[in-house]
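Subgroup meeting minutes
Present: P.N., E.W., G.H.
Scribe: E.W.

1. P.N. recapped why we're keeping a running log of single-chain structure predictions: easier to compare across weeks, and new members can see raw inputs and outputs side by side.
2. G.H. added today's entry (355 aa).
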Amino acid sequence: MGITDQKYKNIHDFQAVVMCWAEAVAQRYGLGRVDQDSLVPLPTSSTSDRYQERIGDGAWRFDTEVGPGVLVLTEVQAERDFMAPVRFCQYLCNQLLLEHKAKPFGPDRLLPLTVMVSLYTGSSPWALADLSQLFAPYVPRGSESPLQVWHFDMKHMDADAVPVSDPVRLLFDVERYRKVSDIDVPALVQRLDALQDGDLKDRLLAFISLTLHDFDPRLLLQTPQTTQELGEMVEAYRITHADELRMTAAQTAAQTAIQTAAQTTARIRLEDCLEVLLACGTDPSAALELGLDLLVMDDFPALGLLVHTQGDLVLLRTHIPPQPREGVTADDRRYVKKLLQGCHSYPSEEHLELG
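Output recorded in log:
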């Protein structure tokens, strides 16, 4: 079981979490108030193929003011899947057949609203296609399917569009973390401490731990036992890796500035180039010489300057100036040295001297 499946299966059997989704579904479809006493978990349906078996993550039934027996299923997706709409329909139909087997449907007992809640946690955005969009153009389009799929791109959707409150809203917010500096620890601790269910709080701590550990294995090496311990562990990480976090932020800003300039043919700032060079491990003396090369290019082209290599950005000398280098003065050298020493990624050793 992957990390994503593990952390959601640990959460989705709590009454407070399920009730959040039940109320969100009832509000979306105009069903009125949810009868909390009627909320019951159901066996999940599965599909099999020659490669693997897929099992739905959760299924529940509940009554509302408008009608009884509403079915809600959840499915967590870590990767984009072209056939997901087909598979979701299969889950929904299987669930209805399970309900029919337990208590037959008929003219006097019609099928209830059946909703699939799709929770996507992948790193790149994904808008789930409507089932009709998967078919070739010559296939006739019928009326809208009564089977409902409600899709959420948890990492990329607008935060204001999240239709649920805590504790489920907390899952969305944690999934949106990109780096340690995104974590407002006091606010996170306050939201966790506001929960009445101690077991749910423990599961959420485990959820947060797995999520943060996933984007940096050095963070939260063990699940914190209390919210206070969570705060202490994140703060200890920030102190231990302060220089690295500062350099990473500076490198990201420099990369963004260079890429933006390249896309708009604007002038690329020399200090951004130097920042990226140092962050990628270039020796400061070599970075100085390359900086002087770039300086004499006189508005060097915003073209071919950066290349992606296994996720790392490296600076290329795409235009080699005439040798010996012409037009570089002592003031130029001092200017580039000053820019270099002002970079966040510049080594902090006081004895380092640049030629």
